[in-house]
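lol forgot to send this yesterday, sorry. struct tokens for the thing we talked abt
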């Protein structure tokens, strides 16, 4: 029986373990993917740290997969053998709940999440539902494309939710923000990057990408903003962001997990400021973003790690040791 390699989480708060296991066979509607690259997302840290409820255990994390179809399950017609595909966080939705039927499959009542409730991409192979996978161009570099599958797609949904305003704040200048900053600047918007006050490396990185201002999240930007997106998992940033948006401005929480939000005076929300969260992604987000990304010419800053160095990649992400995104290359 052919074998694959995977980095497996047996229990939250323990290191991933390298395992050899049989290559799974695709069921109806699925494809077996030979993985070329898989991005390391902050959500993976939340899975490993036990901050998200009820993961499948043991679980192979990873939901920013770029690879090729090597085996097709019964009934698959939308991909051919050898096709290059991207597999995102939303691995499957039920198709029949009220959310799915209204084009909001991101809120599905019975979803499957890649690398959380189905084995993901920290491996040489993974199964994927082809209706929730996306065709990718041949010419793209796999490692530079992988972060688009979550930081890009869910980042794009957050960006869309932030509205059309010209002055956009980004809290937490990691993988998603470094992609979105390039999209926003390409669209003629002004980007304001907020980081930990002592993180001058990320502030310099943001300015190098064209941010008009970068500073600590405890600082006031030189002008009031139309909207802000919070990617850092820090609840205290919610009142901080509300304090820097204009009347009618919007604050979008783009992460899946956040520490508690401290209480704040109603005046920060008053004057029709809005606060909302973004959950998961829809097909529409993927089609829109994968169409716009090549036009923007996004320059992806990636740090590559071999598969068996996944724990080091997660630790480096936790400690903020690189700019941009980490990617595992099996
Ligand atoms: Zn559903
Ligand atoms: Zn993610």
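and heres what i got for the seq, position by position
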């Amino acid at each position: 029986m052919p074998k694959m390699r995977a980095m497996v989480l047996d229990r939250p708060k323990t290191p991933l373990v390298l395992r050899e296991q049989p290559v799974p066979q695709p069921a109806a509607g699925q494809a077996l993917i030979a993985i070329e690259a898989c991005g390391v997302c902050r959500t993976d840290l939340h899975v490993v740290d036990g901050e998200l409820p009820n993961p499948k255990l043991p679980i192979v994390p990873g939901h920013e997969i770029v690879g090729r179809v090597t085996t097709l399950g019964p009934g698959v017609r939308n991909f051919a053998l050898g096709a290059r595909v991207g597999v995102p966080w939303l691995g499957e939705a039920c198709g029949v709940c009220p959310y799915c039927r209204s084009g909001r499959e991101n809120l599905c009542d019975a979803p499957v999440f890649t690398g959380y409730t189905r084995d993901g991409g920290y491996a040489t192979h993974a199964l994927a539902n082809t209706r929730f996978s996306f065709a990718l161009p041949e010419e793209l570099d796999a490692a530079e494309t992988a972060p688009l599958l979550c930081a890009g797609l869910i980042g794009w949904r957050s960006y869309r939710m932030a509205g059309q305003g010209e002055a956009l704040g980004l809290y937490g200048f990691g993988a998603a923000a470094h992609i979105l900053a390039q999209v926003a600047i390409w669209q003629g918007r002004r980007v304001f990057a907020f980081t930990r006050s002592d993180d001058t490396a990320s502030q310099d990185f943001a300015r190098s990408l064209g941010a008009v201002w970068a500073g600590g999240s405890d600082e006031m930007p030189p002008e009031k903003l139309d909207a802000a997106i919070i990617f850092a998992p820090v609840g205290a940033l919610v009142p901080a962001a509300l304090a820097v948006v204009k009347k009618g401005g919007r604050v979008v929480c783009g992460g899946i997990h956040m520490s508690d939000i401290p209480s704040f005076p109603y005046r920060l929300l008053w004057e029709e400021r809005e606060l909302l969260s973004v959950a998961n992604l829809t097909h529409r987000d993927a089609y829109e973003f994968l169409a716009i990304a090549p036009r923007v010419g996004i320059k992806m800053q990636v740090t590559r790690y071999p598969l068996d160095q996944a724990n080091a990649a997660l630790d480096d992400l936790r400690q903020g040791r690189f700019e941009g995104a980490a990617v595992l290359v099996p």
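The pocket of zinc ion (ligand 2) is lined by residues 41, 43, 63, 89, 150 (CB under 6 Å). anyway ping me if u want another try
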